[in-house]
Amino acid sequence: MTINSSLSNPGLCKIMLDKYAGLAESRKMRSILLLPGFLILSVMPALVVAEAGPVTLTPEDLENYQFADRPKSSPAKVKDLNIRQKFILDSHRQGTKDLMIRRLGIVTLKQDKSDLDKIQRLVDRSIIRRSDVEQWQALGVVFGDVLAAELNLHWVSYQDERGHSKALQWKKTRNFVFPVTMLSRRVQYKQEIDVFAIFDQIESDIVDFARYEELHGHI
Q: Hey, what CATH topology would domain 80-216 get?
């Protein structure tokens, strides 16, 4: 069975490998991870469903709600970025660099963890208007470059029934991060933006997946 979910509410659902190591061993259950902008497609030979009471959904949850009788969607198509997509990413990077030069006096981005402080300063000083979705997405590209460099991810073109997206893929697995909209969606839903915490969470999850892959083979 393939689990495909695109919910992106912080802390909405997270089943960690360490927490359920015993269960995963006995039932051969793969992990499910739902993180803002993080899509995990996992295969589970045995699906365990726990009984739960009523659930309160946020506006973001409602937007992405998957009805039980919804027809199965076709598998997403993943390709290398085309020339136009690469140009768009480069334009976003340059726009963010120009903004940092003007407002923060920062002239370089190193595409490593040192850039997180620069990104957070833009956020904390409210330099980008909440309504400026394009600039928030440009900042998401810069954040994505940090994720790619530090966590062994790479940019790809991701296409599903909703359209085309630029995503980060972990190795050749069906695990993706969507950093372009990761920050803009938090702004849209008036959620706090802590890029250090977001980075640490994604890093922790990828470490868990890498550990699982090492022990049990490909995810």
A: Four Helix Bundle (Hemerythrin (Met), subunit A) (1.20.120)
156, β-bridge pairs: 167
State how far Cα 110 lies from the chain centre: 21
Tens-digit pLDDT profile for residues 124-179? 999 999 999 999 999 999 999 999 999 999 999 999 998 999 999 999 998 999 99
- Domain borders along the chain are 80-216
Report the alpha-carbon distance of residue 82 to residue 183 in Å, rounded: 24
**DSSP single-letter state for residue 46:** S
Who contacts 78 (Cβ-Cβ below 8 Å, separation ≥6)?
A: 156, 157, 158, 159, 167, 169
Residue 147 structure tokens: 């994720």
Query: pTM here?
Result: 0.69
Cβ-Cβ contacts under 8 Å for 46 (sequence gap 6 or more): 27, 28, 29
